[in-house]
Structure formats: structure tokens, C-alpha cells
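User: Design a sequence. Structure:
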């Protein structure tokens, strides 16, 4: 099966990702935060992503941060999320930015692209703290 490459993403975008489990894409797509974009083989991009989950969003462990509707409605809206979501920066993975790993989310808020939304500037400190904790 031939996989299509998506156009260049931007670090800080929240995208719809089939975050892999060992060697296979997970059947259930989930939000993922793009931490870095590698353009060595442009226009074929690779991205480093951290997965998001709507489970236990109020309990944060080392390397995690959350985007909560009630606590930060502006950031929640910018992220394009449907549920309170926490992101774990510890198991960040590098994946080809292709239709194998990324797909258009159900509401397609940004057209035919995997993009759900963008990390709001108010969350940069939380992400930096999570990243530093994850890499210790």
C-alpha cells in the first residue's frame, strides 16, 4: 500500500496520529503534539510526536502536561481538542509524516490535513517543564 506524505507541519501543532504500539500503528487515532519537524528529506517530513490521552488528565506524572477545558479555555480551544487531554513527553517518537501514521480528524477543522489545532503560547512553560522532567 502506498502512503501519501502530508505537507510540512509545524512544531507545536496538535495532530491526529495513529501513535504506534511497539511496531504497529494503533487502530485508534489520538491527538499528538509535534515536538520537532525534520526536513532533511523535504518534501518528505519526519516528526517527533508525544501522544495525548483523555485518561486521568488531572493526575500528572514526570514528563506530562495537560490541556484542560475548565482551567484554560483559550488554550483548549486553540488545541482543537474534544476532551481534556494530557500529553506524555517521555515516549516521544519520530515518525514519517504520512497517511500511515497520521489522518484527517473527524471534524476536519483545518481541511484535509491531520491538524487538530495548535499549542497555545500560555502552555509553553508547562511544556518546557514537562520536557525537562522527561529528559532527566
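Assistant: Done.
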Amino acid at each position: 500500500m502506498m502512503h501519501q506524505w502530508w505537507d510540512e507541519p509545524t512544531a507545536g501543532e496538535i495532530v491526529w496520529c495513529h501513535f504506534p504500539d511497539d511496531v504497529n500503528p494503533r487502530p485508534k487515532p489520538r491527538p499528538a503534539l509535534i515536538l520537532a519537524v525534520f526536513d532533511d528529506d523535504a518534501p518528505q517530513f519526519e516528526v517527533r510526536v508525544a501522544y495525548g490521552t483523555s485518561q486521568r488528565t488531572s493526575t500528572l506524572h514526570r514528563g506530562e502536561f495537560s490541556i484542560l477545558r475548565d482551567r484554560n479555555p483559550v488554550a483548549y480551544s486553540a488545541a482543537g481538542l474534544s476532551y481534556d487531554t494530557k500529553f506524555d513527553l517521555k515516549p516521544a517518537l519520530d515518525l514519517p509524516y504520512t497517511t500511515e501514521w497520521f489522518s484527517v480528524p473527524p471534524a476536519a477543522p483545518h481541511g484535509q490535513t491531520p491538524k487538530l489545532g495548535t499549542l497555545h503560547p500560555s502552555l509553553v512553560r508547562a511544556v518546557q517543564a514537562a520536557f525537562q522532567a522527561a529528559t532527566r
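The beta strands are 13-17, 20-21, 24-25, 30-38, 46-53, 64-67, 85-88, 93-96, 115-118. The radius of gyration is 14 Å.
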